[in-house]
Automatic annotation (TrEMBL):
Pfam families (UniProt xref): DapB_C (PF05173), DapB_N (PF01113)
Residues the entry annotates as binding NAD(+): 101-103
Annotated catalysed reactions: (S)-2,3,4,5-tetrahydrodipicolinate + NADP(+) + H2O = (2S,4S)-4-hydroxy-2,3,4,5-tetrahydrodipicolinate + NADPH + H(+); (S)-2,3,4,5-tetrahydrodipicolinate + NAD(+) + H2O = (2S,4S)-4-hydroxy-2,3,4,5-tetrahydrodipicolinate + NADH + H(+)
Similarity section: Belongs to the DapB family.
Native source organism of the sequence: Caproicibacter fermentans
Documented EC number(s): 1.17.1.8
GO biological process: diaminopimelate biosynthetic process; lysine biosynthetic process via diaminopimelate
Quaternary organization: Homotetramer.
Stretches assigned to the Dihydrodipicolinate reductase N-terminal domain: 2-129
Name of this chain's protein: 4-hydroxy-tetrahydrodipicolinate reductase
Length: 275
């Protein structure tokens, strides 16, 4: 069975740990926390309020021991951008695959992450949003923006008030993708508005607004189990691969779209002749 380690045991990482401990498709073998965290040396099951699970937690300055002692096939990283980038180099150098859920990277840091993965011939899924729902939403919004040319496009993202990065990684990726789907020469930045309030788990909305009508495509995560479900999906995809991937690759979205188009051309709409 695939062996998994979670790096970053905060809101997202802890809930993912809880989900994976109750799941029989993976073996959660270890956790990684910050070097100053009181979680180091404790049992991950106890930390997240479950029974002792025999899952040790290592501080990130002892990653080598963690990997050597618990032998994970892959890491699920939900920490912070600075820690994630530093730790990724060690994971890749030890031939461990990474599902990178962490956000807040600058463009230069993103490029560095890709360069590291390339240099070590690693397996990486970089997913600023790990839910299948958001990847589906990205595809739908790109299609909609190509159809509704001339419409204004705006993104609204809403998260809990303790989230440190702004705008969200998901909103930045949506904005980049929507910008690139505009015709060359007409490309402009897509505005993002951010709300940080209460305990909102995660909500992204894309609005395409014309003079006389508008459409909205939105996604909402009801709980952090949405991230756990997505992380498991990504892990099962990357476990035997090398290369750099996105969630849309794990979901085969290009293939599904191609099948859909081929199917519609196999079954052209019936036309009625006037006789
Ligand atoms: N891709 C996705 O779908 C999702 C991404 N995220 C991202 O995951 C990250 C974490 O989010 P939250 O859990 O809400 O934040 P959080 O602040 O609750 O958790 C981050 C954890 O990382 C730990 N950490 C700090 N330095 C570390 C190190 N050197 N090694 C390992 N762990 C270290 C912190 O002590 C903390 O426990 C954020 O970047 C967030 O945007 C969160 C949810 C879903
Ligand atoms: O910090 C979070 O919580 C989330 N972060 C991700 C992001 O920045 O897009 C994804 C998700 O919406 C939750």
């Amino acid at each position: 069975m695939m062996k998994v380690c979670i790096s970053g045991l905060g809101r997202a990482g802890s809930q993912i740990a809880k989900y994976l401990l109750a799941c029989d498709r993976v073996d959660l073998v270890s956790g990684i926390c910050s070097p100053t965290s009181t979680k180091a040396g404790r049992d991950l099951g106890e930390i997240i309020g479950c029974r002792a699970a025999g899952v040790p937690v290592y501080p990130s300055d002892r990653i080598e021991s963690c990997i050597f002692n618990t032998r994970p096939d892959l890491i699920l990283d939900f920490s912070n951008a600075a820690a994630a980038l530093k730790n990724a180099e060690t994971f890749f150098s030890l031939n461990v695959r990474v599902v990178m859920g962490t956000t807040g990277f600058s463009k230069a840091e993103e490029a560095e992450l890709y360069a590291l993965a390339d240099r070590f011939g690693a397996g990486l899924i970089y997913a600023p949003n790990i839910t299948r729902g958001v990847s589906t939403m990205m595809l739908l919004t790109e299609l909609a923006s190509r159809i509704l040319t001339g419409y204004d496009v705006e993104i609204i993202e809403m998260h809990h008030k303790r989230k440190v990065d702004i705008p969200s990684g998901t909103a930045s990726k949506l904005a980049d993708r929507l910008r690139e789907s505009l015709p060359v020469g007409e490309r402009h930045d897509v505005p993002v508005s951010s709300v940080r309030a209460g305990g909102i788990v995660g909500c992204h909305k894309v609005m395409l607004v014309g003079e006389n009508d508008m459409i909205e495509i939105s996604h909402q995560s009801f709980s952090r189990n949405a991230f756990a479900e997505g992380a498991l999906f990504a892990a099962e995809f990357i476990q035997d691969k090398t290369g750099i991937f996105e969630m849309k690759d794990a979901m085969n979205l290009d293939g599904i779209l191609m099948d859909y188009l081929n199917q519609s051309s196999d079954n052209p709409p019936r036309r009625f002749a006037l006789v």
